[in-house]
Amino acid sequence: MRRALAPLIWVQIGVGLLGFAGLVYVGVARGRPELFAVAGIALAGWIFVNLRRPLRVWRALKRPFPETYRAILERRVVFYGLLDATERARFEKNVQRFLAEYRIQGVAGVELDDTLRVLTAAGAAMLVHGRPEWDYPAVRDVLIYPDRFDDSYQVGKQGNVLGMVHGQGPILLSAKALRRGFSKESDGMNVALHEMAHVIDMADGLADGVPDDLGTNAIAPWLEQMRPEMQRVKKHRSMLRDYAGTNSAELFAVATEAFFERPRRMRDKEPELYAALEQLYGLDPARLCEDAATRVL
Ligand SMILES: [Zn+2]
After folding, report:
1. CA of 4 to the centre of ligand 1 (A)
2. Main-chain phi, psi angles of 149, to 5 degrees
3. What single-letter DSSP state applies at residue 31?
4. pLDDT tens sequence across 213-243
5. What is the Cα Rg of the chain in Å?
6. What does DSSP say about strands 171-174 and 141-145: parallel, antiparallel, or unpaired?
7. 68: CA distance to ligand 1 center in Å?
8. How far is the CA of 207 from the centre of ligand 1 (A)?
9. Which residue from 5, 79, 217, 279 has the highest number of Cβ atoms inside 10 Å of its Cβ?
């Protein structure tokens, strides 16, 4: 969960060079030149296996952020519009990083376009924005379906699934729900945020609504809120939609959606829940809304 790209590269290079130097040393000391060839092949193989992913991310982050992507963020991602110039630049880097690491594919006839790619990445970037040290735990494929689907992944009116995350497998999203999630209705529904919250929750191997990998301090207030919030949901006294009552994993995912989509309402109606998520995500989106409103005036 920790992000440490640059140090990671240097540690990996160091380990590789040590191994390479060791083989060369043995080759010289024992008078066995064929070990040089072995060292060369081993080094090349090691570089390919270990550095391919971090170097791809590193290269992606050095590229300027595409104007077409920026236009999509400006037009469709309310959260991005709340940020000042410095924070926008940081958000864009997280979008680039996600797009470099995750392979996004359209399935069942979906023509993948920049909007679908950028919106998927924007959902991921929102959840890590307040925690620069976080990184998404596992690299997964993202499969974009045209619309809602059923348990056997058939798209159509009988389907009621807008998104899904498999244990260690791909993230599935409905293109229609993805676009609608970022429309400006702030209805508390955003499938990208919902499924990415599941990914964060499942980083410790359990889909239990408790993202243990984030550390005790970050999750302690959330742990306190889970049970009373679940009771409020069951009694229809919560601002979260009923689906949160399915189980604790859905409680976390639905609460995450509401926290980012309707922060001021959550802060007013359920301040303790808001404070818990604020601590967990390292972010005060209600305040961001107010600051952004002042900037415009
Ligand atoms: Zn869910």
Report:
1. 29
2. -135, 170
3. T
4. 888 888 999 999 999 999 999 999 999 999 9
5. 22
6. parallel
7. 31
8. 10
9. 79
**CATH architecture label of 67-296:** 3-Layer(aba) Sandwich (3.40)
Residues 6+ apart with CB under 8 A from 31: none
Measured in Å, residue 253 CA sits from the centre of ligand 1 at 6
Element (H or E) spanning 293, and its range? helix 285-296
Residues 289 and 83 sit within 8 Å (Cβ to Cβ)? no
Please give the distance, rounded to the nearest whole angstrom, from the Cα atom of residue 156 to the centre of ligand 1.
Answer: 19
* Ligand 1 center to 155 CA (angstroms): 18
* Nearest CA-CA partner of 121 in 62, 60, 168: 60
CA of 204 to the centre of ligand 1 (A): 17
How many Cβ atoms sit within 10 Å of the Cβ of residue 40? 13
Q: Where are the domains of the chain?
A: 5-62, 67-296
List the one residue out of 271, 208, 283 whose CA is nearest residue 239: 271
pLDDT in tens, 162-216: 888 877 788 999 999 999 999 977 788 999 999 999 999 998 888 999 998 888 8
Burial class (CB in 10 A: 0-12, 13-18, 19+), 48: exposed
